[in-house]
Amino acid sequence: MMYLHCPVFRGRSILRACSPLLNRSASRAFCSRHDFNSVADQGDVDNWEDNCRGSDNWLRGPRDADWWTGPQPFQNSAHSLPFQDLTQASRADMQTYFDNTWLLTDTLFAALQGEEPFYRPPYHELRHPLIFYYGHPACFYINKLRLAGLLDHGIEPYFESIFEVGVDEMRWDDLSKNHKAWPSVKDVHAYRKEVYRTVCEVIQNAPGIESLKTDLTKSSWWSIPMGFEHERIHIETSSVLMRELPIHLVRQPESWPSLALSNTSSTWQPPKRGVNFPENSQVSMEAGTVTLGRPWDENSYGWDNEYGSKTMATQPFTVSQMQITNGDFYEFVASGGYRDQSLWSAEGWGWACFRNIRAPTFWVRDGPNGLNQYKLRTPFKEVPMQWDWPAIVNYHEAKAYCAWLTQKHGNSDAPFRIMTEAEHHRIREDTNEDTIMTTSPAENFNFKHGAERSVNAGPPNSKGFYEVFGNAWEWCEDHQAPLPGFEIFPLYDDFTLPCFDGEHQLIVGGSFASTGNQGSKFARYQFRPHFFQHASFRVTQPQGTPWLQTSCMESQGPYAGAQSPYRSPEDFVSPPADLTGTVSKSTKQEKTPDPTMKDLFAKIERLERVCEIQCEKIENLERNMATLIQALNAQMAMNAQLESKKHGSTAATRSSF
What we know:
Layout lengths: L23 H10 L57 H19 L6 H4 L10 H18 L11 H4 L22 H21 L3 H7 L7 H21 L38 E4 L2 E5 L17 E5 L2 E4 L5 H9 L11 H10 L7 E3 L8 E4 L4 E3 L10 H15 L7 E2 L2 H6 L46 E7 L25 E4 L16 E3 L7 E2 L2 E4 L34 H4 L4 H5 L7 H59 L2
Helix pairs in contact: 2-6, 2-8, 4-6, 4-8
């Protein structure tokens, strides 16, 4: 059977009790309609397609009224409200912000056409399928409200187990996590309806809202905006996963914001600087100081990695006035940048070869390889290439571009690099205002548009820089690290701590899909360098020493491991030798062809995990076969008894004549 290994389709629901704030008749109705088993282990399937049930007409085309698990949509309902001031928020304000958050998720997932995009793994196989992200934010509300003491019980234990924790891929060739059995879309949809009603009742009835205004992070009510902002993170990351899906599996929702297209011609147009995309000059910045970190008494929600304080000095530097555009990046692509090993770090080159990539992932090839003609993929449409939009790339690609630009300009004595967190603070406006909290910001965030826009569409700030916030995130040279004064949130103790490992790059500034905390000036998010987000970069050229100084250097912890994983400032007083030309090209290339012992051990560990997974599958098959054989033996014994009784009855009948 298709669902033989899926516990959710066996047994009976053992939901014994729901929150005292949840309407019990509603929870009983939910239990009676859905047959779940609360076993701890999630089952496996042989193929992800085994999760598809085959009845998905309700998931095609525009969604009808039954699709919406909370508020019904309205005109412009895909736009976000401003980030909340928690010291002023009433219960009604909380409810309105929650409704806006919930509706954004429902609107986003209304783009998926049929069952397949819910269960189909991403092409890189490094994340769960989207069915997980459809259920995960709802599960998060229930589990965190329980931890905070605002709920006594969950709604469905099995869902609150399998949807609890996502994945953080270790490397670009990490194992697939997509052989799990998942509940039906209808069951997760019904669960979301119950969660929405539950959270609404908590917002309206739970005591202690006054403590949020005075105690902020120490209040049990902190768990409620935590749920809001967590869901908003996954709205954005899910939009990236949808951007990676085959185009026929998505459809732009009716209320989705419009695209700010600068090129609408279906005829291929090679880029011309100053015509299709703007000149991007380098702006000089003098030496200065900045203070990183969110004050503990700040009036909006913050994640643990934002709190604390660190003052940093920056040396003189020049930096691009705008983010690097698709037009800028095209020259790197057309000149063979993806095939020149000398431009890439060892890890970056390994990723590029593994993926056999020749252009940014959201550039859609429009002709044979080598022709270098492309269209552009937005979340739900393929459009003509927008040369003046920011180039959406990962950290490895951004680094390779900087190395290429250094070679192009012949300034190996002062090589280009990506910005640091402190340098990004230097190019911001000198103001205390957090524009994501205002009603009509000029920046392209809060879903003002349905994708990026031209890098100079908005006005420059007083320092001459465009789109410092919104439009696209900016990769930083810094690794995610705790600021002095960092504290772990007891309600979410693993939000950032596992990322204090020297393997997660900071991104700052937010994107068009950033809402709430993500668009805040205090936001410090992180991703592994091979990961894709709506992220771009600027090019910096340091003018003094040290050549690189990041917020992670000299961090006092805590760390994800036993000791500091961060780089030492002494190693970056001068530019790395492979960027200055003091190491020959042949020497640089000798670094990467053969895998290091670390890589060999990592591959062995991955193979061992593959073997373990296959052994588990074999054991499951053996158990199922044993159960089947046992059932067949029992049936055969029953048949034999029936046959024996039949013969005995016939003999008795004959003897009576």
